[in-house]
Amino acid sequence: GAGVSQSPRYKVAKRGQDVALRCDPISGHVSLFWYQQALGQGPEFLTYFQNEAQLDKSGLPSDRFFAERPEGSVSTLKIQRTQQEDSAVYLCASSTSGGATGELFFGEGSRLTVL
Amino acid sequence: AQKITQTQPGMFVQEKEAVTLDCTYDTSDPSYGLFWYKQPSSGEMIFLIYQGSYDQQNATEGRYSLNFQKARKSANLVISASQLGDSAMYFCAMREGFHGNKLVFGSGTILRVKS
Fold this sequence. Notes:
The complex is a heterodimer. By secondary structure, chain A is mainly beta. Chain A is built from no helices and 11 strands. Chain A has strands at 5-7, 10-13, 19-24, 31-37, 44-50, 53-56, 65-68, 75-79, 88-95, 105-106, 110-114. In chain A, the strands form 2 sheets. In chain A, strands 2, 4, 5, 6, 9, 10 and 11 form a 7-stranded mixed β-sheet that branches. In chain A, strands 1-3-8-7 form a 4-stranded antiparallel β-sheet, with no helix packed on it. In chain A, a hairpin with a 2-residue loop joins strand 5 (44-50) and strand 6 (53-56). In chain A, 36% of the residues are buried. Chain B is mainly β. Helices cover 0% and strands 50% of the residues of chain B. Chain B contains no helices and 12 strands. Chain B has strands at residues 4-5, 10-14, 19-21, 24-25, 32-39, 46-52, 60-61, 64-69, 74-79, 88-96, 104-105, 109-114. In chain B, the strands form 3 sheets. In chain B, strands 2, 5, 6, 10, 11 and 12 form a 6-stranded mixed β-sheet that branches. Chain B starts with a strand and ends with a strand. Chain A binds chain B through residues 31, 33, 35, 40-45, 48, 50, 55-56, 89, 91, 93, 101-109, 111, and chain B through 4, 33, 35, 37, 42-47, 50, 52, 91, 93, 95, 99-108.
């Protein structure tokens, strides 16, 4: 596709349920990022992949959060045993490696609401 | 310490006038990049403009310009000839290191353009 695609756009989960959020980056983009954006706040870094390697997961808030990118393209962010504080928009972004500016291209996000 | 500070939670501007959105940053790395993104109500983050720490001139992209004052560690966004479609959330972000792998975002400024 032309841009970063995320699904589902909206997800409502009951507390304690597991959720999986998918990101399809721009074709050929080596780098992939996940961010969490709480209401009215700026995006907060969660994790970073270069191809299939997860090089930085310092932003994952707990061991309930897990991300993978097994073939170096599509990525999945999984949240186990969801809690109300997990309610946020989860943004995926991709970029080329060695780009002049390192500009990130973002998807429209997946809005998670935990009841 | 806060890396990116946006002190204006909200701003109003009259259509066709110019507006400046403030951003200050904190880093000890001599190599860094500064970005501005626009986030309309649809949620997608749209890249506007980039300034590298070694760039001698202020960046410009159409109606957007970045007032880069390195000694003061500020990177204000100037939007000229405001349009109704400019109403959105605006985020300043920084990447540390020339090949840094993530952007750190500020808390954002909501801009409303009045007709």
